[in-house]
Specification:
Blueprint: H1 6-26, H2 29-38, H3 47-65, H4 71-94, H5 97-125, H6 128-148, H7 150-160, H8 168-187, H9 191-214, E1 256-258, E2 264-266
Antiparallel strand pairs: 1-2
Length: about 280
């Protein structure tokens, strides 16, 4: 039986990395199916998808600059760019006007302006191997920022003692994804790919440890926290913002009625829901 060589192992880890990354890219599908069915974004934000699109575009540019071992990076980041662009298109269709304006500004400034500046500056101010090296450092820095993003989620888990917004399957697949790309980068001696995934692996393990510690915590703990205390990418419609309003006893709203005992009751719609 032929022994596995370094190129063979690199190819195997590249294939596995493509498969796991593809599954991670598909993770938001239920969210966008829900948006499509309800014709509303319901408070979901576009920032995570804009960042993911930027990262995929940047890695795709870096892959085209490489002179060898670039096919694995080109395939997955081409797919990722298409998937994230589709998510953002669906978001723009069903988002309310303020969210559409904000997302358009974000895409124009970040995904067009910053990305365009990186491409143009490296294209005209550097050549060959030096150009790939500069873009590689930029990709590594971007990847480090993306991998550091779960810190806000981990902080929320520790504060609330709830893993409601840190699902174990996603943490597990992100960890496996980091492992695959670390070994791929290591085997092909591309340290711009390998090193950032060390941080990704570390945070993935930390998330799974937190999940094990707090998985049996009572649900509903998050109700004690205000909505604005949650990270921006965790504003979900399942949480309702508590409103404390002072009611003047002399004022009687239109949607309330006095009972015989003098108590105020909210008018109930035919559907059985409280009219707010």
């Amino acid at each position: 039986m032929a022994m596995l060589t370094v190129p063979h192992m690199a190819f195997a880890f590249g294939i596995l990395g493509n498969i796991v990354s593809f599954l991670v890219y598909l993770a938001p599908l239920p969210t966008f199916y829900r948006i499509y069915k309800r014709k509303s974004t319901e408070g979901f934000q576009s920032i995570p998808y804009s960042v993911a699109l930027f990262s995929a575009m940047l890695l795709l540019y870096y892959a085209f600059l490489k002179t060898d071992n670039q096919i694995m990076l080109i395939t997955i980041n081409s797919v990722g760019t298409c998937i994230e662009a589709t998510y953002l298109l669906v978001y723009m269709i069903y988002a309310p006007r303020p969210a559409k304006i904000y997302t358009a500004k974000l895409l124009l400034l970040f995904n067009t302006g910053v990305y365009g500046a990186i491409v143009l500056s490296t294209f005209f101010l550097s050549k060959g191997h030096r150009r790939a090296k500069i873009v590689g450092w930029v990709c590594a820095a971007c990847s480090l920022c993306v991998f550091a993003a779960p810190l806000s989620i981990m902080r929320l888990v520790i504060r609330t003692k709830s893993v409601e917004y840190m699902p174990f399957p996603l943490s597990f697949f992100l960890t496996i994804c980091a492992v695959m790309w670390f070994f791929y980068g290591l085997l092909i001696r591309d340290f711009y790919i390998a090193f950032p995934n060390i941080l990704g692996f570390s945070f993935g393990i930390a998330q799974m440890i937190l999940y094990t510690i707090y998985k049996n915590a009572k649900k509903g703990v998050l109700a004690e926290f205000k909505l604005q205390e949650l990270p921006n990418d965790l504003v979900f419609p399942t949480l309702e913002k508590a409103e404390n309003t002072d009611t003047n006893p002399n004022d009687q709203p239109e949607d309330t009625a006095m009972t015989e005992g003098g108590a105020r009751d909210k008018a109930v719609e035919p559907s059985g829901e409280l009219k707010v």
